[in-house]
Specification:
By secondary structure, the protein is an alpha/beta fold. The protein contains ten helices and nine strands. Helix 6 packs across helix 8 and helix 9 runs antiparallel to helix 10. The longest helix has 16 residues. Bound molecules: S-adenosylmethionine.
Amino acid sequence: MSTDSYYKDHWVDIEPDRLDRYEAQFVWGPNGDRLLEPAAIAAGHAVADYGCGPGYMSVELARRVGKAGHVHAFDINAQFVRRTKSRVALNGFADFVSVIHLRGDMLPLDDDALDRLIIKNVMVYVDDPLASFVEFRRVVKPGGKVHAIDSDFYMTAFDPVSPEDWRVVLDAALHAFRTPAIGRKMYGLALQAGYSDVAVQIVAAPDTTGRMLNFIKNMAGYARDGGDHDEVTVQRVVDIATRAVDEGRFFSLNPQFLVTATV
Ligand SMILES: C[S@@+](CC[C@H](N)C(=O)[O-])C[C@H]1O[C@@H](n2cnc3c(N)ncnc32)[C@H](O)[C@@H]1O
């Protein structure tokens, strides 16, 4: 059932089937390199992965910085912290990756501790995105970069799910996000936070394989958790999307906004 802090609570406690869907959804995808490219991560960098989830990106970051560098991975979910630790160890990177269970929005890092801070699909959930950009500026050294990647949930598009049906699901699921239009807002927020340079790019790569079906099912779950939703429409969206994936005619678009802010 929804509360005012559902947008955070649903990450702290995740039921097993949703955890499995997230695990599948966050696998490092074909666009991963494009999403990270503007951050210009190099060997030897100290990098944070804020909101690491099951740790797929933490492993990719570790590969890039190598053992001369360090990755600090943070998450508020205890199971993701455990999964990230084992994924990092399995890949042989445990010596230079720290995985930390975060309990607030302040980072347990000294001022100027990092060359890069990467936050992927997490700004949408933080309590106060401007305060987070300010906090990130504290822990990144002058000349370093904060690279934020996120969706704008009003810009998601599907076919053959109708725009009207999708809007019903989206509206009922909005309580799962603190700032659902975060994608378009991050540029202005980073400027407001006082970075010396802010660049924005958009990566819009359609998914026709069904990767986004897990996202649709999670949105249906958020809508149902709200308790005040149109179940017939929510189930129709899931059924139409599932059938479209099975029949090879699924189309979805979830543009990713990349904001790279230099300290
Ligand atoms: C959509 S997932 C993204 C996971 C990962 N960054 C990725 O892209 O694969 C959001 C993650 O952010 C974490 N999270 C949510 N709110 C957070 C907060 N306020 N501080 C830190 N992590 C948070 C969740 O537990 C979850 O692991």
